[in-house]
Every structure is written in C-alpha cells, then in structure tokens.
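Record passed on here:
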Amino acid sequence: MRKKYGKDGLVAVSVSLDDAKDKEARGRVIAFLEKVNAADVINLNLDEPTEVWQTKFKTVAPPTLFVFDRENRIAHKEPADGKEVDHAAVEKKVQELLKK
C-alpha cells in the first residue's frame, strides 16, 4: 500500500518491540523488513515497558496494524477481536482517509 498510495500521502511506519540491544534480534528484524520490502520505510524500535504500549494502544501483543488519520488519531486497528489482519479492510480505510 505504501508504494500504491505514498504519492497520495500515505506514510508507513514499522515499530519493533524487540530488545534494541540484542544484536541477534535486531538482525532478525532487519532480515524481515528486507524480506517484505519495508527496509526503506520508517522503522522504529520501541523501548517502552510492555505495560505502556499495551495500555496506550489497547492491545496485548503484536502484530497489530494501526491506521492513523491526518490528525494522528487511530482510525482503524487490525486485527480486531483476535482475528487475522483483514488487508482489504485496511486498504479500504486508507482509501477513505486519503480522500479527506
């Protein structure tokens, strides 16, 4: 979606929860990002305690995909209710938000 909608304003950001000091974990993160063609997007490593991000984003574990609107509010969250990520629903929401 980043390649498809980037020209329209979509920005993709990945966040790793792995220990940034663990070189092996960092290597796995980098390998994964390269595998999914995301090495050139904004890639962050969160160093907050688990309880902080669980409370703030109302999620218990990754992977979780968030779509933010232009005012930086969460407009969509996947997966919902423990289901698999619905990529079609994510793209539909992205299209809707880019029109605003």
Q: What stands out?
A: Helices lie at 2-5, 23-35, 50-57, 87-98. The chain has a mean pLDDT of 88. The longest strand covers residues 74-78.
